Amino acid sequence: xxxxxxxxxxxxxxxxxxxxxxxxxxxxxxxxxxxxxxxxxxxxxxxxxxxxxxxxxxxxxxxxxxxxxxxxxxxxxxxxxxxxxxxxxxxxxxxxxxxxxxxxxxxxxxxxxxxxxxxxxxxxxxxxxxxxxxxxxxxxxxxxxxxxxxxxxxxxxxxxxxxxxxxxxxxxxxxxxxxxxxxxxxxxxxxxxxxxxxxxxxxxxxxxxxxxxxxxxxxxxxxxxxxxxxxxxxxxxxxxxxxxxxxxxxxxxxxxxxxxxxxxxxxxxxxxxxxxxxxxxxxxxxxxxxxxxxxxxxxxxxxxxxxxxxxxxxxxxxxxxxxxxxxxxxxxxxxxxxxxxxxxxxxxxxxxxxxxxxxxxxxxxxxxxxxxxxxxxxxxxxxxxxxxxxxxxxxxxxxxxxxxxxxxxxxxxxxxxxxxxxxxxxxxxxxxxxxxxxxxxxxxxxxxxxxxxxxxxxxxxxxxxxxxxxxxxxxxxxxxxxxxxxxxxxxxxxxxxxxxxxxxxxxxxxxxxxxxxxxxxxxxxxxxxxxxxxxxxxxxxxxxxxxxxxxxxxxxxxxxxxxxxxxxxxxxxxxxxxxxxxxxxxxxxxxxxxxxxxxxxxxxxxxxxxxxxxxxxxxxxxxxxxxxxxxxxxxxxxxxxxxxxxxxxxxxxxxxxxxxxxxxxxxxxxxxxxxxxxxxxxxxxxxxxxxxxxxxxxxxxxxxxxxxxxxxxxxxxxxxxxxxxxxxxxxxxxxxxxxxxxxxxxxxxxxxxxxxxxxxxxxxxxxxxxxxxxxxxxxxxxxxxxxxxxxxxxxxxxxxxxxxxxxxxxxxxxxxxxxxxxxxxxxxxxxxxxxxxxxxxxxxxxxxxxxxxxxxxxxxxxxxxxxxxxxxxxxxxxxxxxxxxxxxxxxxxxxxxxxxxxxxxxxxxxxxxxxxxxxxxxxxxxxxxxxxxxxxxxxxxx
Length: 942
Description:
63 strands; globular; 7 helices; mainly beta; 8% helix; six-stranded antiparallel β-sheet
């Protein structure tokens, strides 16, 4: 994740026409839905440019994607998403034809075919203790079984054949107790050196025979000043690190296993007062780079470990690894950022102060700084060397720069979306033109290369929404008061209606200036029509939670309550009007917190204004009102769920068989909590059925009252849950049955059961309009049922419509990264094996032990939303229709009609026939009128 975030506004336009259907024909795929593929933020890259017609670069990303990109256009040739639990450690090239990837902390080594991306072989490398992961591929032209790769992972060193992935030998280094930093091999030698630190002041060199893994020698030497942090290998026998004070550099020579140290004070080297330094990761022959005093310093390692200062540059630079341009010469790239321009310099390793190439390229300021750069050489027509650079920007975008021009650009920040919200397009009004806003949308879309809009107003009945995705915001990174900004969420801030049309809608982006929960927060307000940042506000307090209050001021600004780590509540916007509105509802504001680690849920309410040295009218202390403590020796909280605050419920009454009525228990304060036995908190299979158990609760968050509790013996998580109206559906694993299950709980209000008496309704002696209070003990009844389900589930959502009339469907993000639509009727707890005729007329489906998986119900068709993390639904203006958007490494959008398009004409409706029918009817009416007039005239003449 980037150290800052940005709102990618107007990045996706969702168009749903008035002609909707409940399923798609083959030729309609891609018209009413779309799918975009991304790779994420690149962290490593290797080029394949030797053969004609195969100009590609293979990249590994922070989203654990390995992909091959076309160097000419930036298109994806092939791609493999390894998943969140298979983090990529390193990639390299073996035998000139395989891309080798090391992942899962050095446990899995794979070889992929360079041209097509097929998996050639895969090796699992077990180990004993966690350690640094390293991949070392010795340079060699041999293509045989003897060409080995060395892999360090989990304190074990493995020699693996490049041809078939066979493990030739294994050396367990746990007994050596060395924190390995690098693997080195002198040219032409069969001895490899494994070097690292043991303790705080000892340096170790382990010599191993590369042919059989025999440990030849283990030398250790102590350095009085101690060591700090990582080290940089500058040659096959020299390593550089920092001393424990971080104000001195230590060069360590280990030629032939003999260890010698040479210490150099940084202030003597640079000629300036030294602060604490950081060695930057780089692979430069005979050189290394470190950052100090907001500057980057290049240093050469001369004979006998002597350090020589080369050059000092600004902090906003990125340095590539060295590449070979001839048998005895290497080059590397240096990118410096200055305003709208980035300068790319390519330098020879031996001649640092002269540039082989230097180009300037203009880039969009919104992309932030350059984070990484990878260079590649090619032969020009005049036989001279040319260079291209693959540049990774701060917003995760990827660019290829060649000859001072951007050849192509990819917006891969959309693979790491933090949060999503929706917005409507504007209506026509003075000062705001729909066409102008559409033009702005089109310009944004051209930048992001997402979808073609076409003519947005070609159909006046089209329903258009667009999404706002939070990924990166440059202004927060530039703030002097905000270090290491992190994006949190995006909220609706101002949604003007017709009486306030002089204002554009805006959203509130909430971030945190640091990694800890007590880090100060930061706000950014963004105009959703123009994509421009309205203002940025650094907060004096932390942001632990944001509560959107159901109140707005006269300008339609939404009131927000920000809870800090000290349980204080801060009101925004800070205006006298918002404070007056807030104080009127002061006694009706409650919230809760979940402390999963300690197994505690607490409820809070507002107490009074904050008592502190600086008086703040908009700060309020909280009071603790209830606590639920789960015994940590038997229960661990693993999941919670609540209703969407903006969900629309059409009716509280539910008509059941025989014209009976049940009343839904509708409450925004209902919380679903799932706990498991501690032994079952791990992955599936970590506990036996006797040791596991799943317990679910329905809790009122105002009073802390447990309204319902259910046990699932022999079950364990992970638990995915969704709550809507008066029901909750959750997914878990049944260890006894060795199958996944989905359960449903519906909750009804029994206190309103007497309202079924017609005379009470006629005489007005009912309680349908009486206020509902959480403090009055509810008379509730619950119905539940469980079903087997085939798939593992990553996320669950539910469709939402404008009025809540349309039937609900569950949208299930499966382990296969697809979205399955499941009718809520299949999860009706009133299903029975032999439903009565009245129940059949009501729509009750006969009971089966498993939920059906209908291939046509996959809304993603044959596509995948790789790495799916969330599903968002938004109502369209047509009640029958809902927008569905899924995000992960990929993005996917479609529109659905769960109850079919009962409020619109079908797409194949014949408008020509309708027009012809109207013309015929008008003609018939006119002809009949003429004949009637003639007949009436004839009758009068008689």
